[in-house]
Amino acid sequence: MDWTSPIDIYCERVDASFWSEPLNAVSNIAFILAALWAAYEAQRRDVSRFSIWLLITLTFLIGIGSFLFHTFATGWAALADVLPIWLFVASYIVVASALLSGASALRAAFIAAIVIALVVLMAAALTALSNAGGAAARILNQLNGSDQYFPAVLAMLIFSTAALARRHPIRWWFAGATAVFLVSLTFRSVDMHLCPAWPHGTHIFWHLLNGTTLALLLQALIRQTERPTPHEFSR
Predict the structure, then answer these.
(1) Which of 107, 91, 74 is nearest to 6 (CA)?
(2) 105, 231 contact by CB (below 8 A)
(3) Can you give the pTM of this predicted structure?
């Protein structure tokens, strides 16, 4: 892979210049604001768990990485974009599993392993479908790469369902984040399709709504009423 070759996969970009995607670039402020809000609430509530601050830091880095990708638009910038995202997903699965499973470290690890296995299997299945050709591949190719986030949707649906079923105090934060993310992913998917009617594209709404999604997910952990359990990441 050529790490310096220009990448053009969004409606707003019309050339390889640094500021060819101004709306997509500036809208990454949503992730920065989500991280700052979370840091403020965590500080105010005296939350010092490493797990929470790791997720806050990754949210901030998502904003930085996405800004780099929508300005430099190269292979290395794409890596800076996706790496913090998937580190956030993996970390959040572990932390949310611990939160929803109660005090048992073994149970939390078991739940996290199942969710991660399902996410990996779904990602592998989508990759296989995309490479196999045929109708399924054509449908996936119309999504502008949004199918890569279907495993994250699966994880969010699992945790939202579990939280609602257990009537967990943070269930509505999870459910709200999942609903917003589904709308956000829709905007990401139709970006190129709506280019003729809206030259600026809809990727900006992916950033704004996805930043809202991460803000809700972080607040769910920060505001949860249960005291941290011994097995969770140490203070």
Answers:
(1) 74
(2) yes
(3) 0.88
Q: What is the largest distance, in Å, between two alpha-carbon atoms of the chain?
A: 55
Q: Are 187 and 17 in contact (CB under 8 A)?
A: no
Q: State which amino acid sits at residue 36.
A: L
For 87-120, the pLDDT digits (tens) are 999 999 998 888 777 656 777 888 889 988 998 8
- Residue in 53, 72, 97, 76 with CA at minimum distance from that of residue 2: 76
Would you state the pLDDT for residue 1?
A: 64
* Cβ-based neighbour number of residue 185 at 10 Å: 21
CB atoms within 10 A of CB 167: 7
State the distance between the two ends of the chain, measured CA to CA, in whole angstroms. 41
Structure-block tokens of residue 128: 């296989």
DSSP 3: T
> pLDDT below 70 — which residues of the chain?
1, 102-104, 225-235
